[in-house]
Structure formats: structure tokens, C-alpha cells
Amino acid sequence: MNIIQLNNLVKRYPVGNGEFTALNDINLNFKEGEFTGLVGPSGSGKTTLLNIIGSLDTPSDGSAIVMDKSIAELSHKEAAMLRNQHIGFIFQTYNLLPVYTVYENVEFPLLLQNKNAAQRKSAVMEALEWVGLTDKVKSKPSMLSGGECQRVAIARAMVKKPQIVLADEPTANLDSKNSHHILQTMQKLNKELGVTFLFSTHDEKVMQYLNRLISLEDGKVISDTIKNA
Ligand SMILES: Nc1ncnc2c1ncn2[C@@H]1O[C@H](COP(=O)(O)OP(=O)(O)OP(=O)(O)O)[C@@H](O)[C@H]1O
Ligand SMILES: [Mg+2]
After folding, report:
1. Residue 12 domain-assigned?
2. Which one of 8, 25, 96, 171 is CB 3.0 to 4.6 Å from 179, fit for a cystine?
3. How far apart, in whole angstroms, are the C-alpha atoms of residue 172 and residue 146?
4. Ligand 1 contacts CB of residue 51 (under 6 A)
5. Mutate to test the pocket of ligand 1, among 23, 47, 90 (most ligand atoms within 8 A of CB)
6. CATH code, 180
7. What is the 3-state secondary structure (H, E, C) of 152-175?
8. From first to last of its 229 residues, what are the pLDDT tens digits of the chain?
9. Is residue 23 part of a domain?
């Protein structure tokens, strides 16, 4: 089953008096349980593509169907529900809530899901264990290093065990050991729970974990390679 379908997807942004085409006729399908990397030069459209799949932005033309829902046709409320229930998003810039602690940041998605306090606590602590930050529960983001913030963002995206994790350069600020540890955790969620992962990445370390690699250039797909399982 295709969990994500992109058909003739185009994204144009208004720039000055004209338009800039950030995504140009993208046709891609993703099956449940794929572990895919998007690569391409800066400005090639990786973040734009993840944002549309994550219902944070909408297509200008064509369609993006995610879990049988057409992104362009969702109301704000329906888009929020799709994200809260099914999608974990790791932002390139983390987007942590500065006044909240590490624990509260990771707990946040669960508060939107009617989980009781005990369920939330065990899920948050498990997610913080995945990223090696159980000793920082009470810290605020301003007290953390860049890589630690990135790990909090990863824990927050994965804590609810969503069907889809969209990860924008998730290892950009991590050292080799942390990168491998987190990629192994993601691979485990992928294999055991069938979570579908879509990364954007420049990181060679990520490549060995992927089972599919898509290259973008100037908003177009220039290659799409299935790797050996
Ligand atoms: N809101 C916007 N308005 C105008 N242009 C935009 C907007 N958002 C993105 N763009 C342009 O679209 C193109 C694709 O941007 P995008 O952020 O998707 O690239 P990327 O592949 O993620 O790059 P990077 O590797 O640097 O993160 C860029 O040229 C960017 O300037
Ligand atoms: Mg980007």
C-alpha cells in the first residue's frame, strides 16, 4: 500500500513580481515501511517536499496524498489532526519550545493524544533513552548544545510512534556515535513497527541505513534508486 503518493506535484513561491518553482512535477510513491533518503544540493527542494508531505504547506499544482488524505483539501483542523496522530516531524531548525524543559518538549505531542500521565511518562522516558538524554529531563533548550537540541527534536518526533517520520537533516549536528545510535533506533522502529521514514540528508553515515535513495536537483527528481534490503 502506498502511504504517500505525489502526483505531478508542483510548488511555486511568489518572489517579487514573479514566481519561483521550488518543486517541478514530482511523481513519487512511498510504500508503508520504506526508509528513504532525499539528497540534493542546497535549494533543491528537500525541505519544501517534506513540508508538503507533513501538511505544513500545500501544493501549487498536482497532488500529495498522505494516508489517503489529499493535503490540498484538508482544513487547518484536519491537517493538524493528521500531524498529531500520524506524523512525526524533525525540523532542520528543531523548533523546540524554549520555555519548556526537555521532558515537556518531548511530552507535548502526547498531550494532544489523550494519553494518561503514566503512559506519557513511560513513553517520554523511553524516547529520551533512544536519544541518550535521560539525564537532561529538567534542562531547557537554551542550556543544551546544538546536537542535544537535535536529539530532543528526534525524541519528540518519535515519542508517539507515528506511522510516518519526516526528518529534515536529522543528523546534521550529531557526532558519529550519536548518529549511528539514533539511526539504529530509527531502523528498529522501522523494522519492528513498520514506521515509514523519509529523510533529507547530506550525511554519508545515513546512506547505509536507507533502502531507497532519491536525488533532487532544481526541484526535480533526477534519480530514484532502491537499495538492497
Ligand atoms: N517561502 C518561500 N518563498 C520563496 N522561496 C522559497 C520559500 N521557501 C523555499 N524557497 C525556495 O525554494 C528552494 C528550495 O528550498 P528548500 O528549503 O526546499 O531547499 P533544500 O533542498 O531543503 O535546501 P537545504 O539543503 O539548504 O536545506 C530554494 O531556492 C528556496 O529559496
Ligand atoms: Mg532544507
Report:
1. no
2. 171
3. 10
4. no
5. 47
6. 3.40.50.300
7. HHHHHHHCCCCCEEEEECCCCCCC
8. 899 999 999 999 999 999 999 999 999 999 999 999 999 999 999 999 999 999 999 999 999 999 999 999 999 999 999 999 999 999 988 999 999 999 999 999 999 888 999 999 999 999 999 999 999 999 999 999 999 999 999 999 999 999 999 999 999 888 999 899 899 999 999 999 999 999 999 888 898 899 999 999 999 999 999 986 5
9. no
